[in-house]
Amino acid sequence: MTLSFSPLPLNKEFMALLEITELSHNFGGLAAVTNFSLEVAAGELVGLIGPNGAGKTTIFNLITGLFKVNRGYIKFQGEEISRWPSHRISSGGIARTFQNIRLFKDLSVLDNVRLGAYARHGYTLLEALGRSGNFTREEERQRQRAYELLARFNISSYADAPARNLPYGEQRRVEMARALISGPQLLLLDEPAAGMNQSEAQDLIRLIRQIKEDFSLTIILIEHQMRVVLNLCQWVKVLDFGETIATGPPREIQHDPAVLEAYLGKDGALTEEEPEKSATGPGNVA
Hints:
Elements: E1 16-27, E2 30-41, E3 45-49, H1 56-63, E4 71-76, E5 79-80, H2 86-91, E6 94-96, H3 109-114, H4 125-129, H5 133-152, H6 168-180, E7 186-190, H7 198-214, E8 218-222, H8 226-232, E9 235-240, E10 243-248, H9 250-253, H10 257-264
Helix pairs in contact: 7-8
């Protein structure tokens, strides 16, 4: 199936799609993130890893406007977005999933996906209240986009089912479809493999590779499963207690003494994982 939508246009004047400089955030007297900097070029797939409580999700919440920036700045396509409200950030081309699935459990799967397009609807409040022709056309267009995404994620059969009835792994797919319906350039995935077994994680690896290609995405990934990180990320940044302790290719980071100590103590060792060979073609997506 050929999908009928594409990301928002990219301003190619800027080499870094996302630029974060000396970002800090405190919760009362607790420093959650300290002097965090990051540059991500268009088309990259970057990992953000670290032990629980390292500040990874806080960074996603700062990028998407859920938390206010205490210090530093965030630029997207060269424009500072540090003070933008979350709905403006979403309509500007950044979408995310959550560590803890946040679906509307009593709504249908189709309606959950359609809600992801709210920031880019093409009608005014008055047109919606009056159910104008423009409103009707736009709603139908978004409905068709949602159906296309459900087919792309192999969950069309659940379209009319309440989201609560889906297995955990399929709920993850609904979240990703909801994020993609807005046509983002930057997709933030917060522990997409959480709770998955090895087979499910391998399917997820293939799926993320495919949607990155199909939707021309730049992706930042938070993940604890090293198999997923090794197979997907071009480079990773490691946090511990809100501070960056290492940056580099995943196979180098895997053996970095500071990273090993942060995860497992001085004598620890992260499990050696062999990356999968890259697979292409729609038949390789579960």
